[in-house]
Each structure stands twice: as structure tokens, then as C-alpha cells.
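Slide 14.
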Amino acid sequence: MIDQLTRRHLFGTGARGGAALVLGGAAAGVLAANADANPPAASIGAVAASDLANVRLLVGVELLMVDFYTEAVASKHLSGGALADARLALVNEGEHYKYLAAVVGSTNVAALTAADVNFTYPSGAFFTAASVTQLAITLEELALGAYLGVAGKIANPVVAGAVGQITVNEAQHLAALLVRTGLPAYHQAFPDPLTIEEASDALAAYTS
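Slide 15: predicted structure.
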């Protein structure tokens, strides 16, 4: 399952068709003005094979985050500021996915789409606002760790800049969630990165 997903889908070189739109036009239109989607305007340029492998991993992370926030909003357990944050995070993650999918596409390789992945969550994950928030924290920690692990390994300067921007955004998501649970928004001066193997293993609990 995840080994196949990681090696064949995330790091493979076979084309599978164009990347699907992650967020519907209506939903994107409502929140786009607040999402401030401004990826690097510079041409992506050449993407090395090592960069492609790392970006494909991040594509898998973003597909998980998009699916989770979609389910979180649909659960109807979030309200007020928590619901607004989840909706905006969904737009953010969708923009991350679209940019990273374009990076993969620039190499004439089709990016993984939601149709290629089965998502699985712990029993009761969407039963209460507290359970949704706790899983959000867990997944944002996964996402942040994955981005931190990749950040120093991207050779393409344009892509590296975008990965840096996304890393900050994931940290913002995590900080907001922690504050909502009464925990400190930050602690470590140097948050722990995940290796590509650790990030792949972490994805195994939620994707196949």
C-alpha cells in the first residue's frame, strides 16, 4: 500500500493523466481573496530527479491535507473561528497542491491526484470538534515535518522558495490549532524535520 504509493505514485516517472483540480471553483472563489495565493512568479526551470522525488512526496502530503480539511468542514462539528480557519486552511492546501502539481507537470510527469489515493482516518476522528482539532494538529505536524525535511534538499531555487513559503504557512496552521486547544503556539527553536522515509511512513497511517 504505502510502499506502492510512495515508490510508484509519489516517486515514479510514469504519466497518469493531468492533475485534477482539488478545490471546486465556487469554494475557491469565495475564499480566494482571503487566501492570498501568491506562489513564485518566476519560471520553474529545470527540476532535478532528486527534487522531483521530494516534490512528489509533498504532493502526497497536500492531497492528505486537502482531504482532511474537506472532511473536517463537512463534519459540521466546527463553528465560528475554528470553522473559518479550517475553510481557509483548505484553500491554502489546495493552492499548495496546485503549485506542486505544476512543478511535477513541468517535468512531463503527471502529478498524483485524489483519485489515485484511498484516505483512512482513525475511528471517531470526525465525531466531535475536539477529535477533529486533535487530528488536525497531528496532520499539520506531519506536514510541517515533511516540509522541513525537504526544505534544505531542493536544488531548484524557485521551487525551494515556494517550499519555504509553504513551510511557513503550515507552521501558521499548526500554531493556530495549538492556540485553540490552549497550548503554546510555539516551543522549539528548531522544529524537528522528517526524513523522506519518516514522512512516507507517517503517510501510511492515512493513505493507501
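Speaker note: The chain has one domain: 46-203.
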